[in-house]
From TrEMBL:
GO MF annotation terms: UMP kinase activity
Residues annotated to bind ATP: 11-14, 54, 58, 161-162, 167, 170
InterPro entries named among the record's database cross-references: AceGlu_kinase-like_sf, Asp/Glu/Uridylate_kinase, Uridylate_kinase, Uridylate_kinase_bac
EC primary class: transferase
Enzyme Commission code: 2.7.4.22
Subunit structure comment from the entry: Homohexamer.
Domain Aspartate/glutamate/uridylate kinase stretches: 7-215
Substrates-to-products reaction catalysed: UMP + ATP = UDP + ADP
Protein name: Uridylate kinase
HAMAP family from the UniProt entry: PyrH_B (MF_01220_B)
Record-linked NCBIfam families: pyrH_bact
Length: 239
């Protein structure tokens, strides 16, 4: 069965790569996500990825301990490059042609981000990993994901998280928490739902980019959700 999307962006948070640990990278988790991405790519969809860096470093957390915020944010962006290299390695082990494109130039290990070149890589069937976020402090990799997905004219942004969608409150703390099947961008903004930061949601809203939130740890979840098999929450414009 062909996939209903031509080109998609998958955002994976850095925390998703930690596995059961509280810091760093669990190679088994990276391998499992790479296998899911490889399946989707082999089935003909064009895939690009944005990986967070929260498993290694966050500028906000460092600033809370007295570090200069912008310096911390640059360190956070470098953390995303480490994660991107790990993911590239796991994808290449599965024989998926992959390119890392970095928003901060580091030509020895990654190509510089050039929009038209990224599109060309994807047209050739390569998986493109966008590293170093937006290249600017005070942003998040969620905003980077909404930005790159808009630039790449993706059909949707898939956000792989630790839970299977967006809930009315934290399902790990509140047993009465309810999962939404669909939400509008305005619902997320006005109810201040904890999905992505407001900059990312606003960018997606302006560019009519649907966001699909799902649990990245369920085996084969990415390919299932691409086919509409739940559970997940879809955020879109009001119909
Ligand atoms: N960051 C940044 N600009 C960007 C993207 C990321 O300054 O465009 C920094 C910021 O310090 C952030 C860190 O990189 O905390 C890691 O990214 P993020 O927190 O989005 O990772 P995730 O929560 O997805 O693991």
């Amino acid at each position: 069965m062909t996939l209903p999307y031509r080109r998609v962006l998958l955002k994976v948070s850095g925390e998703a790569l930690m596995g059961d640990g509280s810091f760093g990278i669990d190679p088994t988790v990276v391998k499992a996500i790479a296998a899911d991405v490889a399946e989707v790519a082999q089935q003909g969809a064009q895939v690009c990825l944005v990986i967070g860096g929260g498993n290694i470093f966050r500028g906000v957390a460092a600033a809370a301990k007295g570090m200069d915020r912008t310096q911390g944010d640059y360190a956070g962006m470098l953390a995303t490059v480490i994660n991107a290299l790990m993911m590239q390695n796991a994808l290449e082990a599965l024989e998926v042609d992959t390119r890392v494109m970095s928003a901060i130039q580091m030509s020895a290990i990654a190509e510089p981000y050039i929009r038209r070149r990224a599109v060309r890589h994807m047209d050739k069937g390569r998986v493109v990993i966008f590293a170093a976020g937006t290249g600017n402090p005070f942003f998040t990799t969620d905003t980077a994901a909404a930005l790159r997905a808009s630039e790449m004219e993706c059909d949707a942004l898939f956000k792989g998280t630790q839970v299977d969608g967006v809930y009315s409150s934290d399902p790990r703390k509140d047993t009465a928490a309810k999962r939404y099947d669909t939400l509008t961008y305005m619902d997320v903004l006005s109810r201040d739902l904890n999905v992505m930061d407001a900059a990312a949601i606003s960018l997606a809203r302006e560019n009519r980019l649907p966001i699909i939130v799902f649990n990245i740890h369920a085996p084969g979840a990415f390919q299932d959700v691409m086919r509409g098999k739940g559970p997940f929450t879809r955020i879109d414009a009001a119909v």
